[in-house]
Amino acid sequence: METPLTKNMRADKSPVALSDYMSTGGYAAVTKTIGKSSPAEVLQVVKDSNLRGRGGAGFPAGMKWSFVPMNEDDPGHKYLVANADEMEPGTFKDRLIMEQDPHQLIEGMILAAYTIQADVGYIFIRAEYHYAIRELKKAISACHDKGFLGKNILDSGYNLDIHVHVSAGRYICGEETALLNSLEGKRAHPRAKPPFPQVSGLWGRPTIVNNVESLACVSHIVNNGADWFKSLGIGEDSGTKLFGISGRVKKPGTWELPMGTPIRELVEVHAGGMQDGYKLRGFLPGGASTDFLTEAHLDLPMDYDVIMKAGSRMGTGQMIILDDKTCPVAMVENVVSFFARESCGFCTPCREGLPWVEKVLHAIEVGEGVPEDLQILERQGRFIGAVGNTHCALAPGAIEPLTSALKYFREDFEQHIRDKKCSYQ
Amino acid sequence: MSAVKNDMINVLSQQEIDAIEAEIEHLPDRKSAAIDALKIVQKYRGWVSDDSLRATAKLLEMSDEELDGIATFYSLIYRHPVGEKVVMYCDSVSCWIMGGNKVRDRLKEKLQIEPGQTTEDGKYTLLPVTCLGDCDHAPAMMVGDDLHHDLTPESLDKIFEEDA
Amino acid sequence: MPTIIVDGISYQVDANDNLLEALLGLGLDLPYFCWHPSMGSIGSCRQCAVIQYQDEDDQQGRLVMSCMTPVTEGAILSIDAEPAAEFRSAVIENLMINHPHDCPVCEEGGECHLQDMTVMAGHSMRHYKGLKTTHRNQYLGPLLNHEMNRCIACYRCVRYYQDYAGGTDLAVFGSRGRVYFGRHEDGVLQSEFAGNLVEVCPTGVFTDKPLSERYTRKWDLQSAPAVCTGCSMGCNISVAERYGELRRIHNRYNSEVNGYFLCDRGRFGGGFVNHEDRIRRCGVRNASGVYDPVSKQQMLEKVSALISAAGSKVVAIGSPRASLESNHLLGKLVGRENFYSGLSGREQSIINAIYAIQQTGGARIPTLREVEAADAVLILGEDVTNTSARLALSLRQTVRNRSKEMANQIQIPLWHDAAVRKLAQDEKSPLVLVTASEDRLEDVSCLTHRAGPDDTARIGYAIANIIDNRYSRPADLTDNEQTLAASIASILKNAEKPLIISGSGSLNLAVVEAAANVAWALKGENKDSGLIYCVPECNSLGVTMLHDGNSNNLDDLLSGSDDIDVAIVLENDLYRRAGSTAINSWLGKVKNLVVIDQLDNPTASVATLVLPAASFAETEGTLVNYEGRAQRSFAAFLPQGDIQGSWQWLLDIADQVGTQKFGSIRQFDQVTEDIAAQNAALSGVTKAAPDASYRSGAGQKIARMTHRASGRTAMVADVTMYEPQQPVDNTSALAFTMEGANLIKPGEVPSSLTPYIWSPGWNSNQAIIKFQAETGGALTDSDPGVRLIATASPVADLHTRHTTIPAITRHQGGSLQLVPGYHLFGSEELSAYSKAIAELTPRGYFAVHPDVAGQLGVADHDGLETQINGANVQLEVVVSESVARQCVVYSYGIDATGELVHEKRGTFKKAESWESSRPSNLIMSDR
Ligand SMILES: Cc1cc2nc3c(=O)[nH]c(=O)nc-3n(C[C@H](O)[C@H](O)[C@H](O)COP(=O)(O)O)c2cc1C
Ligand code: SF4
Ligand code: FES
Q: Alpha-carbon dihedral of residues A110, A113, A119, A125, nearest 10 degrees?
């Protein structure tokens, strides 16, 4: 089994330096591409590889890049942004790449930027990732020294600078258009799409935003070809993916595995199964903003469309496990209160709706709920839940754990209301 | 322009001004450096006071309102004084499942403050923080720039002992 | 025009609209908050949701925000579908969870968009049990209240304030459910257009502070359609009264003029109507200089006796702030030869020149709406924000045309406000400023040049000459002037619809003439050039057009040597227009000074007889704005005491005198007809508004009281139990009752005279949608007013017209060029009496460049003095980099500056005994 993303990573987690990275084929893709292949050729490979975005939405990267106007006589800037905000609760994968093998990201960025002919790249990274920030800055300066970044890269006439932008907090910055506003030094309100960033993004210029993991895949695709990448997946989707599990399992962690790996294998083999004394009741398959699935779904492969059909989303591919000793009502309350706190405050359903839901859940959890509360939760779920109801995808994601919990764990809610207490404590 | 406002810039040190100007360098306009500038000021002062906010706004050629609107949006820009170190415990779901509340309670007890407050000696400010991306080692927290994980109420004591 | 199907019915709609404006334009009801017809969509409130179906087979459809969805051919939509209705009801329920239930004490109550939308969206039962969020309110100055708890976070205020009006000191703070809209700290809002927040905010966060001192509900206000007297823009306003006091002024929509917005002078300047210095009784000055009240009849007899005395020489001074009707009757009473326009000679010559230029047809005179379509603007010597504020607000939209062009290129619809702004960033259509001191439009200008008036004129001449070398060229152009003129010329030549703006503000004829040359030269290059002149007062142009532009001016009178038996002054404080020495010496020759005016001003206080004149809120009158648009203003209420319209006084005097000159004229409408008959230039004036015989479709007059006026019987219940009879209005098409045409029934065309905006289900001013033919377009009944200056085909040889080019301004033997500096708050005579405005009026000053301050040996807070025409004027010094060298800018109309308006230059020295009373941080642009 190939693990291109993690193959260089070391047991002691020390970062892979430029020389080590190059000794295992690093920057070969850059060397063979910049100034040698046309942007259109790189685009084609990435398109053919069917690389889908690893940031949550699973949008095909090549298709996204193809929307950037390739207007020879437009002299303005274009931008490539790596989304390294990683604040989705339960998600800890981009950090791995940036801390332990940062050049993968830089190389991917150079290739992506070249493809859309961007001349400036930003890594938008959350402030708490101190180690990653340090490693990325080191990596960038090493690349400048080697001529992989800066003016006239490898004598190709192509210029690219990459800056690390350290964020000032707030989960909404991970939403790509909010991220752009934040990069511009503004309040991080998401923007309405269309126009898409590919056409009018950072400072009104064409911009691509991709997740760190998505970008890290690019050099491997360029090196080994689209078919190779497709063959890595064992289900419908291409490539490998950094899957992870947190919660009461024996060995929580992140592993690089083929797309389409069955959930049961993730839980039972890689995570070592549930801790002794705990049973699995359900799980959020791709971060805190995805719907619960249950034991009944354990045999599904982790593929975008499969998980979607099951009623949830692949999200970041990082699972959070609900065990039988943890109260689902309280868990949902925790999740909703997180999103209510992180709402940008722009649109009504999210700004007003989530705090209401949070209050109702809290009342139920502490034994002050009334039967009518369940109707309120359902109504609020419909109100906040559908994509399109809100200005961005934060709020619909925020409410997914609740609506699915009402489906799978309704009895828990009812019991809280009936008994006027939480029986998990 | 009035003399009063010009004086305000003197609130900022030359280092701060230089650092902010350096950020502006690679941006299309001065205002775009707003967040960077606030963070620079905060790096030197721990927090962004009204006076430093106004001085920064002046430097960036924007109004106090425009800059404060940005400053108050972001959770890591402190518009109130904070202690020497900010203790940020993760209160997101994975940590919560793994006993994050116990860690929080232990922190409250140890520091004798509620989240949002600063210890009497001015050493620590306690704040909740969004998932630190360390969920496989939950519960996690940061003390200043240092990440601590696999926390237990007991391991907390050690951390603070070492930090003292 | 695309066809769309809404709940099974097909409609034709405009392809450039979003669905919301299209649906509202069709007369359908759909709730909304964040969208505003002139600010476009951002999609934050989510209130305007409808269902859109993919095709006929699609049963489910998709929820879309109508304001964020473009109109597309064949779109199938439903407003009524259950999921859409449920969603809209949930939006309002969620918005209401934190909204206080304080409607009974909220000043928005009864005209609250939030109330209307709550009813429309069908939310009535509260399910939320938590506590409400509370906020601290801020002090925002004397004009606006702030009650943040009522905020529903629609973001309209900040979008209006920052994006539309260019203000910087109102913002949104915080995030999530804790967003806060206000200032960084308490303080006076700095935008000249802040007052519009009252109407922009859909709930009661920003309310009208002067109104709240003597608060009245919308339904108990008696209103009339009026025209603002604050400046020459002629904004349409709705004036509202209760208990004989003016209570508030609201915007009255006119698509060609003010649209949805006023400036703060207009909105808050009406306070003078209630001022304690109002002249309310007829007065005769006694030996000790005090006025003894006399009855109206006694006064008429006295005036008539004076006029009729055998051989008496009677003269009259008219006024640019009085109506055409009053000025006309005054002229008629004393004869044209004895009528003086009331403008100073200096002002009159400039306005005559402006009027002559406008008549050439050499360039269009754009309406304010057309201003917004210009693609390049040059402003020569006019501080537009402070003299003609509403124009400045339009110019702030004009500069956005570049962004609209960019948006068009990549097919971003123009209503998609945030996207258009993001795309364009700081790109703007060019706006060039050549002015003598700091200008509030600098933030949107691409080029600002500081020059005194003469030098401004020179640059104008040079530009015209570069565009077309047949226009005169200043002989001794400096290199600087040459380069500057060349770059401005190329900016203008690159445009299709360049707009030149100038005016009488710098009191300099050459500036006015130079501006015309530029506009004409551009026209010669086949540009669709526009030319706007700001004139000082609400009827400066009207009084000039009277007597077809041949009236004498004030100086003609003051400089005469004749003894005068009776001088009648109409609504004019002469001390603002000429030096006191000249006036006083002239008064020495006047035996009887008769003053008809509203306020006890310096002129009124030296009169022999004083007649109390109605204000614009209490009588009708026709005013001509900067573009030659005649507009009729109506009385909101009948004045108390002896007060009546000046025109009525003059009719009564004529009656008493028994002159034959007035023929059968007894009625207001007859006066207007007489004006039309006697003045070719004003022949269209009767079309400015319907006459008194007008009746609505249902045969009714227009009601000034609302159909819901609750208190007509209760109003005086502490005095009498009888309901007093309402006065009968024989003068106009309006009635002082609640019965009449004002409740808009479906299918009925509401009259443009409707004094307030109200429609079933729409109690707030947002009901204006129901009065427009299409959203944001003209009123269904057409916009009121008539344009009197026809765009004639251009007169030939325009390039030979203006050739008098001033010399370069030099510091001549210690004398400096005197330049008026204007203040929205304080420079205009009547509004300055309004309490709220007085609070914001700066103290008088002389502003100079630091170099000049150095030469004169003065610094901030010192005093400067000058001897002018026998008067000694002392004012405090303001030193500012942004004052042109060689100039002294003085606070026009504030403190003793009436002494200065006559002079082009002055010699200054430090006022040794000056004691500063200015707060230390006041800067020139502070209000
Ligand atoms: C509320 C919200 C938060 C998000 N946070 C992140 C994030 O932290 N990192 C990330 O890569 N994508 C995040 N996304 C997804 C991004 O909007 C965007 O889809 C992604 O960065 C695109 O990259 P990809 O196509 O490579 O996945 C977030 C989306 C939403 C709605
Ligand atoms: S759903 Fe609305 S309020 Fe929530 S984060 Fe997105 S835009 Fe902001
Ligand atoms: S009016 Fe459409 S979302 Fe607010």
A: -80
pLDDT at residue B2 above 70?
no
Residue contact C130–A356, C-beta within 8 A: yes
Residue C139 Cα, gap to closest chain B Cα (Å): 15
- Which residues of chain A have a CB within 8 Å of the CB of C65? 388
C-alpha distance from A218 to closest chain C C-alpha (Å): 29
> What's the mean pLDDT in C841-850?
96
The answer to whether residue A97 scores a pLDDT higher than 60 is yes
| Predicted local distance difference test score (pLDDT) of residue C927 | 35
Predicted local confidence at residue B7, as pLDDT = 44
Q: What percent of chain C has pLDDT over 70?
A: 98
Instruction: Please give the tally of structural domains in chain A.
Output: 3
Rg over CA atoms, chain B: 18
Is A1 inside a domain boundary?
no
| Architecture per CATH, B3-73 | Orthogonal Bundle (1.10)
pLDDT score at C792: 67
- What is the distance between the alpha carbons of residues A337 and C343, in angstroms, rounded to a whole number? 69
Distance CA C27, CA C49 (A): 17
Instruction: For the domain covering C815-911, report its CATH number.
Output: 2.40.40.20
**What are the C-alpha distances in Å from A118 to residues A3, A34, A114, A154, A160?**
29, 13, 6, 16, 7
Per-residue pLDDT, averaged over A210-222, amounts to 98
Ligand 2 and A395: CB distance under 6 A: yes
CATH 1.10.10 residue spans of chain B: 3-73
Note the pLDDT tens digit of each residue in A104-117.
Answer: 999 999 999 999 99
Chain B positions in Cβ-Cβ contact with residue A128 (cut-off 8 Å): 88, 129, 132-133, 142, 147
Q: What's the rounded Cα separation, in Å, for the pair C440 and C385?
A: 6
ipTM over 0.90: yes
Amino acid at B48: V
Q: Which ligand is nearest to the CA of C44?
A: 3
A394: Cβ below 6 Å to ligand 1? yes
Q: pTM to 2 decimals?
A: 0.96
Q: Are C534 and C387 in contact (CB under 8 A)?
A: yes
Cβ of B136 within 8 Å of Cβ of A245? The answer is yes
The finding on whether C607 has its CB within 6 A of some atom of ligand 3 is no
Question: pLDDT tens digit string along C519-575?
Answer: 999 999 999 999 999 999 999 999 999 988 888 999 999 998 889 999 999 999 999
What share of chain C in percent tops pLDDT 90?
A: 87
Residue range B110-128, pLDDT digits in tens: 999 999 999 999 999 999 9
C925: pLDDT strictly greater than 70? no
Task: Give the tens place of pLDDT for each residue, C619-670.
Answer: 999 999 999 999 999 999 999 889 999 999 999 999 999 998 999 999 999 9
Closest-CA residue to C225 (of C746, C779, C709) = C779
Closest CA to C181 of C224, C218, C228, C137: C137
Q: How far apart are CA B164 and CA C788, in angstroms?
A: 84
Spelled out in words, what is the top-level CATH class assigned to the domain C105-116+132-213?
alpha beta
Question: Looking at chain A, which subunits does it touch, using at least 3 CB pairs closer than 8 Å as the criterion?
Answer: B, C
| Interface contact B73-A171, CB threshold 8 A | no
How many whole angstroms separate alpha carbon C661 and alpha carbon C786?
28
- The domain defined by C276-359+540-624+635-689+786-793 folds into Rossmann fold (3.40.50)
Q: What residues of chain C have any CB closer than 8 angstroms to a CB in chain B?
A: 162, 168-175, 180, 183-185, 425-426, 881, 920-923
Whether A198 is in the pocket of ligand 2, judged by its Cβ within 6 Å, is no
Whether A54 lines ligand 1, by a CB cut-off of 6 Å, is: yes
Q: Is the Cβ of B144 closer than 8 Å to some Cβ of chain A?
A: no
Strand A318-323, strand A240-246: pairing? parallel
Query: How close, in Å, is residue C413 to chain A by CA atoms?
Result: 10
